[in-house]
Amino acid sequence: MTIPRRLLLVNGPNMNLLGTREPGVYGSATLADVERLTTDAAARRGFEVRAVQSNHEGVLLDAIHAAREDCAGIVINPGGLTHTSVVLRDALSGVALPVAEVHISDVTAREEFRRFSYVADVAIVHVIGEGVAGYGTAVERLIDVLTGQAEG
Ligand code: DHK
Q1: Is 50 exposed, middle or buried (0-12, 13-18, 19+ CB in 10 A)?
Q2: pLDDT digits (tens, 9 = 90+) for 57-74
Q3: Is 102 helix (H, G, I), strand (E, B) or coil?
Q4: Per-residue model confidence as pLDDT tens digits over 40-61
């Protein structure tokens, strides 16, 4: 079966503030930088990226639902929704596309409430604490799975 050579990149609430937001935690790269590096990493493997960022949960859900039509997988940094959102988790499991979960910071080494992720067990790739470079790692690992070079 041929898969669409396109990934959906989802960035959740507050990710539009990257570059100025708590630079000691999230670094100085902007959302535009993140979207560019993700697009470049995918392009090296022959995939396109459609990027969405929103501070509104429903916008993210709609984008995830639409990905069923023309995307092979989803790279997502849900921001704070990671730790709170059953509906985001249900959207990801509902569309049944392979998911890579990314966190810029090391959520295991911060506040206790950041250790739990509603997304973790619906994702097949997890990249945590690699800074924005982690988006590139997530793309590589997700495409390895999609193209059969790694186990899901
Ligand atoms: C980004 C956020 O906005 C936080 O709410 C998460 C995550 C961590 C990140 O590290 O990319 O707790």
Answers
A1: middle
A2: 999 999 999 999 999 999
A3: strand
A4: 999 999 999 999 999 999 999 9
Q: 1 lies in a domain?
A: no
- 126 catalytic per annotation: no
The catalytically annotated residue of 26, 56, 126, 135 is 26
Positive or negative, the CA dihedral 24, 27, 31, 32 is positive
User: 18 CA distance to ligand 1 centroid (A)?
Assistant: 11
Residue 142 counted as domain residue: yes
Quote the pTM value: 0.97
* Domain of 35, in residue numbers: 6-146
Question: Annotated catalytic, 103?
Answer: yes
Answer yes or no: are the C-beta atoms of 104 and 134 closer than 8 Å.
Answer: yes
Q: What is the DSSP string of 8-23?
A: EEEE-TTGGGTTTS-H
CA distance between the termini of the chain = 17
Q: Ligand 1, from 20, 30, 33, 104: best to mutate by most atoms within 8 Å of Cβ? A: 104
Query: Which residue out of 56, 65, 83, 103 is catalytically annotated?
Result: 103
Whether 152 maps to a domain, the answer reads no
Please list, in sequence order, all residues whose beta carbon lies within 8 angstroms of the beta carbon of residue 31, skipping any fewer than 6 positions away: 11, 15, 16, 18, 19, 53
Instruction: Compute, in angstroms, the gap from residue 73 CA to the centroid of ligand 1.
Output: 21
